[in-house]
Structures are given as structure tokens and as C-alpha cells.
Amino acid sequence: MNLLSLLERLPGSYAGPAQPEPSPYGLLGVGEGALAAHLAATLVPDTLTRSGTQFVVSSADAGDAARDYADLAEVAGAAARRVSTGGSPDDVDVLVPGGVTTTYHAAQYLAHATGHAREAGDAERLLAELRDRCAPQIEEGNPARDLAWTLWGRTPLLLAAEGADALPHAWQSLLARVGKTLAVPVLGDPLVLVTGAFEAQHEKGDAKVALLLGDVDAVLGVAREVLETRIDEVLHVPYPEGLSPEHSGGYAAQLALWYFGAWVAAYLAERYGLDAGDPPMLTRAQAVLAGEADPEALSAPAADEDVRPTQLVRDWRADATDGPEEEADEDLDGDDLDDR
């Protein structure tokens, strides 16, 4: 099943445990579980607990680290709940699907397991509404496809207000893994970064677009004004509508914005003519780290895999008649590529 079909079927597909575990809670994520844990941090702010339940969310390739964290939690007095995409049966209490959708399934399990079934239901409703607006058959007024077009040929800068730093993490991961595009998260104090980042080399602002993810607070509002004088375009990607104001930036809203980012990334890969699925090199690396493949599998590409650097700017210019014209980023100048 291709990723677009998988995304279309995702809302309402969670079928894992729904009963709450004993509190208090601690939450750690490694490997493919790191992003789900980051998004669920709005529900479980504590990393470690000495009683109650310690959730360790991981994937088979990060099994050693997950096992160590779970063992430490149990020694400290907590009951460990191991959530993973695979591995030894002794290391998995809750099995979730691997790949891009691990984030959804693991995060929804965490919402239910920590007594936040209402938030999990809110998330399902928001995802279903986004699906109805972003599905492939929606050709006119599809917000995900429109945003992907805007990002085509540009380097996105990702910003979010304080308390929503999981969003730049989520969108950077999605744009890289699915959209095959480098995005730069602006972390820490955004004013320090945006006021100085382009002063020595103003041309570095060319072919850049900033995405303000979620709510825009006072600090992000000032950062927006600064960026509008330094880069090509600044866009606000708000939380989906439909939640009460007190929950507007909470778990459900952030998971929904992750889902919207997955649609955008899938359409961006489509726009570049690339497969939105995982690259074979990533699959082989995860298999090696999980102990399921010979390490020598990483030393050479598969027979049908081309790992040579692709001259993206030249490919993009050649395709200029098929989309809007943009100035090429000088970081990717064709002459520089020839001189390497």
C-alpha cells in the first residue's frame, strides 16, 4: 500500500489497548518512538518515574537503549510498559506498526494508557476532518497539496511557539523521510537566531520559506516580522479548527498537525517525482541495527539503487516550465556541485 492510501485510512485505525495504566507516569522515546513520545509530552510531562508506570516507546533498531531504560525503571520501582515496532517478545508489551505511522499508533496508545481517552477521540476527529480535505481525490482547494507546491524548490525553516517544539521535530522528520527534503528547525530563542542568521550572507535567505507551526505567540510574531525582511516568504500553518480554546495547542491539535505534515510531505515527494516510501538505505540500516541483517549490507548499495549525489537545482531548473519560477539557492549552485 502506498503512503497516500495509508494516510487516507489512518484516522480511526488505532486498535491497541485502551485501558489506563497505574499513575504516576514517566515517558521516554528512542528510535522511531522518539517522535510519538515528544508529541505525547503534553500529556506526560515527566521523563522518569519511580512508581506507577514508565512508558518506553521504541523501535526494533533501538532495542538495546529501550531495554536499558525499561530495566532502570523497574529497578527504581516503576512498572515498565514497552511499546515497540518489533524485537524480542520479552521486550515488547505493546506492538505498534513500524514506519511513518508509528507516531500515530504509539501516541494514541499513550493517550489512552494515561487516561486521556477524550484527547485521543479529539485527535481522531481532527484527523478525519483533515483526511476529507487532503485526500488525493480533492484536487481543488487541497491545503496539503497547495502547501507542497509552495515548498517545492525551497528550503523550509520550521518555527513553533514555546511548548510546541515537537512540531518542528515532527515536520523536519516528515519532510526528510517522506518528502525527501531538508528542512531546518529553528530551536531555542527564535529572536536570537532570526535576527542574526542572515546578516553576514544576505543571499542565504533566497529560496527559503518559513513555516510558523501552530499558535503564534508574541515572540513568534516578532520573529515573523524579522523573517519577512530576510527570506522569500513566511507562512502560518495553524492548528486545525474544532477544539475549544483551552485545548487549542494540546495533544490532539499537535497530532493533527503532524498528520497534516505527513500529507504535505507525501505531495512534495510526488511533486519531485520521488517515492514517498522509506529509502532502501534506511530500511537496510534499521535491519542491521535491529540485528536482523549482516552489517556488510550497509557497505554497498542494492543493485537497483543509485546513491550518487543528485543535482537537484539543475533538475529543478529543467522542469521550470512545469511550475513557478524561483531563484536557486546559492548553497546548491550547479558550479559548486561540479567542483566537488
Automatic annotation (TrEMBL):
GO terms for biological process: carbohydrate derivative metabolic process; carbohydrate metabolic process. Residues 3-115 form the Phosphoglucose isomerase N-terminal domain. InterPro entries: Glu6P/Mann6P_isomerase_C (IPR019490), PG_isomerase_N (IPR041001), SIS_dom_sf (IPR046348). Residues 293-340 are annotated as: Disordered. GO terms for molecular function: carbohydrate derivative binding; glucose-6-phosphate isomerase activity; mannose-6-phosphate isomerase activity. The keyword Nuclease does not apply. SUPFAM superfamilies: SIS domain. Residues 322-340 have a biased composition (Acidic residues). Belongs to the PGI/PMI family. This is Phosphosugar isomerase. It comes from Deinococcus metallilatus.
